[in-house]
Write a structure and sequence with these properties.
The protein is mainly α and 115 residues long. The chain has four helices and no strands. Helix 2 (36-60) runs antiparallel to helix 3 and helix 3 crosses helix 4.
């Protein structure tokens, strides 16, 4: 008998599986003449959606969300979305802004809990 996976492991495995399928499909597109560079914004957006969706699912099941994967998901979604719209954002500036936003969110959460 195979032991049941806990929900967190199952969700994480599902996210990794979707990620690898997305990468495989993107690499397959290069066989049909689409440059990998053209696929990178879509890969970034897909990665962002997967990671944000993973954290939404965790929260919906009553688990704590992963701040790190949420951070990476938001960053990937913003950078990929901007690239699809024709903007090339400096990733280092985005990382700094997102770190600041997470610090502000943590401080606000702490302040609201202390009331």
């Amino acid at each position: 008998m195979v032991p049941a996976l806990n929900k967190n492991v199952a969700l994480t495995s599902l996210a990794w599986g979707i990620f690898f399928v997305m990468i495989g499909v993107s690499l397959t597109m290069t066989v049909y003449g689409i440059a990998l560079e053209a696929m990178l914004p879509y890969i970034a957006v897909g990665t962002g959606v997967i990671l944000i969706g993973l954290n939404v699912a965790r929260t919906g099941l009553g688990m704590t969300l992963s701040k790190f994967s949420l951070f990476i998901g938001i960053l990937a979604l913003v950078l990929g979305g901007a690239a699809l719209m024709g903007y090339m954002l400096p990733w280092y500036a985005m990382v700094i802004v997102l770190i600041g936003l997470f610090i502000i969110a943590e401080a606000a959460r702490s302040l609201s809990k202390s009331k």
